[in-house]
Predict the structure of L-fuconate dehydratase.
Amino acid sequence: MATSEAVITRMDVKDVRFPTSLEAHGSDAMHTDPDYSCAYVIIHTDANDSLAGHGLTFTIGRGTEIVVLACKTLSRLVIGQKLSDVYSDFGRYWRKLTSESQLRWLGPEKGVMHLATAAVLNALWDLYAKLENKPLWKLLVDMSPQELVSCIDFRYITDALTKEDALQMLQENLSTKQTRECELLNTGYPAYTTSVAWLGYSDETLSKLCEKALKEGWSKFKVKVGADLADDKRRCALIRKHIGWERKMMMDANQRWDVNEAIDYMKELAEYKPWWIEEPTSPDDILGHAAIAQALSPLDIGVATGEHAQNRVIFKQLLQAKAVKFCQIDSCRLGSVNENLAVIMMAKKFGVPVCPHAGGVGLCELVQHISLFDYICVSASLENRVIEYVDHLHEHFKYPVCIKNACYMPPQNAGYSTEMIAKSISDYEYPKGSAWQQLIMEGKFQTP
Ligand SMILES: C[C@H](O)[C@@H](O)CC(=O)C(=O)O
Ligand SMILES: [Mg+2]
């Protein structure tokens, strides 16, 4: 694959926030007032082609400035790099970024540093796809199995997935991938919606949004639970009243419970027939998830988790311990495409469907590319597989997602779909953007 001889000359990092808390968009049992935000990275080179890589990592408001600083700290490993050195051995470069001898003390491969790693690498993948003039999913689909595995750092996962396993997996699907690509171009990748039932929505809003979603053709709905059992029962009953019993309902507790509490609580909610319970407890508690999965299996409720799983090692253990029935990768929590490739291949090996998390700004735009690649080259199945969709803030992206009949249609524009409209960045840059100045003046937010 041809890559540019250009050298990275500059990396801009911005703190971009949207006031979603004003209307309780994105609210759940633990994150009651999120302002969907991101650390936004733009990578420039010395090439005379006006191409720049745009990437982001998702945050929910306060603390974004810390992620921005972490991105800036990583820039010493980015500026001066020749693009061909990055892309010709992307796995090696990934390790350079994540294993820097002093910075790794701040992680390793977790928390703020890993969120920053995702923002930087998402920008580099965006630039890579733009240089090849392809949407990211197509860039991946057209790579050879060898090129793909060279993007992955297999350190810490070879007891579950070796390079040879990954190569074999990819090779097995080569002869049929064209058919699946055509299928996706025609029908898209199935999705579910979370937008109808954020925890802070009133019953009236919930009913209105359910009816709207039904008209749009949605058949799978996620509801936030975990703050109050009686309230959850009322809301779940209301949603079932609208969507009936044939359509699927998922529940998301966002880490609210202890292990036994999760089991007891879900026994109470079982009557509403949830397909899965998402993040029932701490994202670090692998054995706890396994215990919950075992206890809820007779009720036919699967455990889903991953949006806070900090790296491929946690996913490896969740899979090894049979702790998850649905594997929820995240384009910004993990170290970009490279680490997501490792996780989707591990999930394939353990026979667990990947259903990405996308509740946040830009996450739908990003993760659709990974799922399209997953189906075409790795899983070769759509059974029990859905991408999350949330109906917020797409208007700020240059190439927003396209949903038809409750499916993600494959993006056609070159890149990783992360580029925001320049005016949106300047208006919502925190706190100096005009939108924030206005909100502060109106007394809706305090001066930081
Ligand atoms: C704070 C976020 O909105 C979170 O609730 C998203 C989430 O858990 C999901 O989309 O799933
Ligand atoms: Mg969730």
Summary: The CA atoms of residues 52 and 448 lie 31 Å apart. The chain has 17 helices and twelve strands. The radius of gyration is 21 Å. The first strand starts at residue 8 and ends at 17.
